[in-house]
Design brief:
421 residues; mainly alpha; 3-stranded antiparallel beta sheet
């Protein structure tokens, strides 16, 4: 963190609110562009003030006494500033003021940039790129905010308060990294959430006593995860393309629909990720790139058919099951496939993972805990996001209710259980 500062002392006057013919003298201390004022408790006639030389005009004993006091104050403030420098304590206009007034307490400690560097050093090695990439973006935003907000481009952790995170939210909202793509809604809330987690970690490692952002709220808005309906899934299965590339992308997407694998995990599948049991069950056991959690999926026949197609394609040059392509390429092809199949749901590769969780598994009676294990979620609350109630589920749950009620009505009538009203 920067240890040199811009520092200045100026003396000014401010007219009294109750008597405009009188004014009080103030010492204005400025550090790195931040001003703080100290009242000298001396009252003068405003017309007697020499603004250029910062003295009171006149030769009376009272005037000389005030001017001497001004010089003594200037000297003492400089002494306190130098003392803070020698002790390597936190230097701001406020700490210089508090030191002069005898109220200063040491605030020196770790800085926010130091915390961000240390957090990245520790956690980037623990998580794969997929698990840390969003934190990288948040850290970049914090760094940009610090440069924009503080002259030194950094701030001590002890200086963080609710105002700091309020201004951070405003900065992200008004200054998106991509001008054409504003960071609003849940994207903004996620940056706030990750910033708070980083500060919580600082508390855990005892760099801070408490999290000053603890009560700051920027709640996430609940949104339904988009997925293919069973009708759209069947339409996709039945569609054949003359273009081999589109057929490959379709197969890869369907494989994810039947296994729940994320794109990066599907691309890195190898022979060693599968186990064949004597009863014919094929298990896909894969540690997720994003979270390093184990995902265990017994392959459905639909997924096994696609797997065998590419395991046995005769390409000995690659060590992965599926030919490697980029996510951008996949998503471009999916837009073409979507139009060809007349699918209304927006299609990206990640929609396949949603489709597995909701349309394939949960809607067909697979327990939530089992879906959690297959998808490699660290928390069941993440899986619960997919278990939202929609119109189709309401319709399914209500189906046959009238028949069940009719049967109960018949039982009541047959046994004469009606009571006279």
């Amino acid at each position: 963190m920067k240890t040199t500062h811009t520092f200045s002392i100026d003396f000014i006057i401010r007219r009294c609110k109750e008597d405009k013919q009188k004014a009080y003298i103030y010492a204005r201390v400025t550090v790195d562009g931040e001003p703080k004022e100290i009242s000298l408790k001396e009252r003068i006639n405003p017309i007697e003030w020499d603004n250029k030389n910062e003295v009171v005009l006149g030769k009376s004993m009272q005037v000389k006494s005030i001017n001497n006091f001004i010089e003594e104050t200037r000297f003492k403030i400089k002494e306190h500033y130098r003392a803070l420098q020698q002790k390597e304590e936190l230097i701001t206009a406020e700490t210089v003021k508090q030191s002069y007034l005898g109220k200063h307490a040491s605030l020196k400690g770790h800085s926010l940039v130091e915390l961000l560097d240390y957090y990245k050093k520790i956690w980037e090695g623990k998580l794969k790129d997929g698990g840390f990439k969003n934190y990288k973006t948040t850290i970049d935003y914090i760094r940009l905010f610090l440069v924009n907000r503080y002259a030194s481009g950094d701030v001590f952790l002890s200086q963080l308060n609710m105002q700091a995170i309020t201004e951070f939210e405003y900065y992200v909202r008004m200054t998106p990294v991509k001008k054409h793509d504003p960071c609003l809604g849940n994207g903004l809330a996620k940056h706030i959430q990750r910033f708070k987690r980083i500060i919580n970690w600082a508390v855990e490692i005892e760099w801070m006593k408490t999290n000053p952002f603890e009560k700051y709220s920027c709640p996430l808005k609940k949104s339904k995860r988009k997925k293919l309906s069973i009708q759209e899934l069947v339409a996709l299965e039945k569609k054949e393309f003359q273009d081999a590339s589109l057929n490959y992308v379709k197969d890869l997407f369907l494989y994810s629909c039947f296994t729940g694998l994320a794109f990066v995990d599907a691309m890195s599948l190898k022979e060693g990720d599968f186990e064949w049991e004597p009863n014919g069950t094929v298990w896909c056991r894969k540690y997720r790139t994003k979270s390093d959690e184990l995902s265990m999926v017994p392959l459905l026949k639909s997924a096994a058919t696609i797997l065998n197609k590419y395991r046995n394609d005769g390409d000995l040059q690659r060590d992965t099951v599926f030919p490697v392509v980029t996510n951008q390429y996949i998503n471009r092809c999916l837009r073409v496939i979507k139009e060809a199949c007349e699918i209304t749901t927006p299609m990206t590769f990640h929609i396949a993972r949603h489709t597995f969780a909701k349309t394939v598994a949960l809607k067909n009676g697979v327990p939530l805990e089992t879906v959690q294990m297959m998808m490699g979620h660290t928390k069941i609350s993440t899986t619960q996001i997919y278990a939202d109630v929609d119109e189709e589920k309401i319709s399914d749950d209500m189906n046959g209710l009238e028949d069940r009620l009719d049967k109960k009505r018949a039982i009541v009538l047959a046994h004469g259980q009606l009571k006279a009203v």
